[in-house]
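Researcher: We're teaching a course module on how sequence relates to structure. For the next exercise, students receive a sequence and then see the predicted structure as tokens, so they can try to spot secondary structure elements on their own. Here is the exercise chain.
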Amino acid sequence: MYTPQFQDVLQARQRIRPYLARTPLHSYAPLNDLIGTEVYIKHENYQPVGAFKVRGGINLISQLSPEEREHGVISASTGNHGQSVAYAARLFGVSARIVVPEGANPGKVAAIQGMGAEVIAHGAGFDEAKRYCEELAQEHGYRYISSGDEPLLIAGVATEALEMLEDEPGIEVIFVPIGGGSGAAGTCIVAKAVNPAIQVIGVQSEASPTAYESWRARRLLSLPSRTFAEGLATGVAFALPQQIMQEKLDDFLLLSEEEIMRAMVYMIERAHTLAEAAGAAALAGAYRWRDKLQGKKVGVICSGGNTSLEHLKQALAAS
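Model: And here is the predicted structure for the students to work with:
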């Protein structure tokens, strides 16, 4: 397993370009007033699957060997990664199976099935689903796609940061949500290649702090994951994103569930956009840091918009 470099991101952009439109980067006066400085939202919630991970799915599946295509792919997901794999597999005529936790977001499950992938429900959380997925891959010879330890996935999702800095080169600080860490790792690769002075700040829920604690300890940890934000819900750290983040990530914030829910409402009220919990988490981080950001241009990655009605009601009730 190699560590992707900036050149890999440039190649990924060429592979992805025929299949995905560039997502918008918008600044909203009410959000600027809230944070007290210029804020630019990268709208990955506008992707055809509603989340950034589709970039990585297309980059990876486009590079499968003929044998891997024949056997098909399998992956574990709480939703967005699974949609990415399903979407890309359909594009390239590859059979896909997605193992989800029992009780996974029903909207995301329906979307995965609608793209033609087989959904297998197993386990109470992501980590149990992942273990079962790995067993099925070994038993049947499927190409197992990790949601974190895949260089082609990281290079693919990194194209979101590349677009952001092309559209607004003056951005000085980027906030990015972290579950497994592929998006943050990709953002670090791009930001530090374009301008090493750009700060990349990761955010995660304090109810699922595995990536944060692993980053601090500089070793891979396994911790309970209890957050309502599926995109941040990882109980086992991934080696490759952690390696990249430990080298390049400038800081890492843990957010309360209430801060994340409040940011979901800010997105609706002030940017007129629907963000799932993980998609709003970066804004929550910018709000937490607002006193440190005065006079700076700030990039916020809205990683996805696939919230459930239940989560939306919960966020509105908490605001």
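Model: If you want an answer key for the exercise: The mean pLDDT is 96. The first strand starts at residue 25 and ends at 26.
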